[in-house]
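Technical annex, item 7. During the second reporting period the consortium partners agreed on a shared format for inverse folding records so that results from different sites could be compared directly. Each record opens with the tokenized structure and is followed by the designed sequence. A conforming record, contributed by the partner at site C, is shown below for reference.
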């Protein structure tokens, strides 16, 4: 008989806790411009080698002297598809600058056919790097996409995000890094 009286209070307590969790989740801040944690931050970028879509070799260390933005992506990834128009806008904005960043899409666990079809349909005239053996993703510690990294002209990792980005957000972060590290 005593357990019958306690049961409604337990159910009410559980309901209050669940409602509280929903309130906390709904009130949480959207992704910030803060860099995601990585042991690579403020360290030389890992050696990254792959093949560009035209068959030529890609070697990240040869990009020293420029700001480099790497975006790990997969053609079937829904957040990657959502951020793609923003990346197109970002790259267009960088092309107008004398100190514009070099942008590369690093293909993460995808086929060349799917990637080529994606870019043919959705645009994006920047270099695409095929990481056929996953060595670039492993070196950077990428576990899922999208993920975006910024590397300064001396080859040091300065930013990483594990969320979608907008053109304005990425441009602002890059400008802040330019001011801080050049």
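Designed sequence (site C submission):
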């Amino acid at each position: 008989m005593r357990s019958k009286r306690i049961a409604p209070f337990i159910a009410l307590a559980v309901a209050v806790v669940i409602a509280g969790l929903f309130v906390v989740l709904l009130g949480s801040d959207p992704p910030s411009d803060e860099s995601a944690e990585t042991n690579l931050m403020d360290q030389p970028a890992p050696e990254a080698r792959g093949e560009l879509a035209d068959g030529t070799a890609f070697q990240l260390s040869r990009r020293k002297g420029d700001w480099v933005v790497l975006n790990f992506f997969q053609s079937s990834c829904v957040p990657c598809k959502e951020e793609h128009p923003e990346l197109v806008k970002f790259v267009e904005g960088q092309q107008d600058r004398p100190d514009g960043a070099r942008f590369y899409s690093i293909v993460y666990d995808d086929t060349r056919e799917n990637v080529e079809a994606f870019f043919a349909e959705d645009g994006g005239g920047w270099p695409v790097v095929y990481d056929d053996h996953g060595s670039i993703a492993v070196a950077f510690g990428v576990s899922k996409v999208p993920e975006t990294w910024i590397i300064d002209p001396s080859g040091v990792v300065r930013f990483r995000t594990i969320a979608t980005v907008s053109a304005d957000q990425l441009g602002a972060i890059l400008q802040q890094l330019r001011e801080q590290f050049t």
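Helices lie at 2-26, 78-95, 112-122, 135-140, 167-181. Residues 49-181 form a domain with the Glutaredoxin fold (CATH 3.40.30.10). All partners now use this format for quarterly exchanges.
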